[in-house]
Amino acid sequence: MSPLTPVLSQPASFIQAVAQLHDFDWDERWIVSSMDPPQHIAPFAAAIDADIRRDGDLASGRLILLHDPAGNDIWHGDFRCVTFCQADVSAEMAHDPFLPEVGWSWLMDSLTSRQAQFVAESGTITTTASTPFGSRQADPATAQIEMRASWTPLLQAGNGLTDHIAAWQDLISAVAGLPPLSNTVIHLSDRLGRRV
After folding, report:
1. In this predicted model, what pLDDT tens digit does every residue of 3-12 receive, in sequence order?
2. Which of 55, 67, 71, 106 has its CA 20 to 30 A from that of 158?
3. For residue 39, is it within any domain?
């Protein structure tokens, strides 16, 4: 949330949703921190970013929670989840024509498996492959998958966001190619000192 937004002006439903974001149990392989949300998109916003590490950075992502108490016709609701995530992939995977469809299915499957109720989903998936030449020809070729997506969580007075956060965690793990998450979890509040 913006530090310029007085706490007393925040709607109770937004406070409740942010509390669920703040108190979520993250797997120990994740490095999660708060970040300044984008301004002027919605009256209220909160955001986090995350890196998954295993033998170096595997994937990174951002999750932004937007809230407009007046509702938004494009969102079909008054909350909106927005994500950006990316991860390195093999060159073969990057050239697979089915990878974008598979990547989108990771998001849809994550939401449905967590029974997270949502509408108005949208997004794009981009795959890139870079081959070095000239003085950089000794560098390894690289490839990435990148997802930008958003959906409207159907919350009741701000309750129910935890299912969407869990789905987002599942999504980033799938993008990173990680095995199922362990039972060792860390509260976001332990890292942020209640700053979200």
Report:
1. 444 454 899 9
2. 106
3. yes
Residue type, 155: L
Q: Decide the pairing of beta strands 57-72 and 77-88.
A: antiparallel
Q: Which contacts of 10-13 are long-range, i.e. CB under 8 A and separated by 24 or more positions?
A: 10/44, 11/44, 11/67, 11/69, 12/157, 12/158, 13/67, 13/69, 13/78, 13/155, 13/157, 13/158
Q: What is the pLDDT of residues 84-119, one digit of tens each?
A: 999 988 878 888 889 999 999 999 999 999 999 999
Do residues 195 and 1 lie in contact, with contact meaning Cβ atoms separated by under 8 Å?
Answer: no
How many structural domains compose the chain? 1
Q: Which domain holds residue 23?
A: 7-192
* Position 124, amino acid: T
Is residue 86, in this structure, part of any structural domain at all? yes
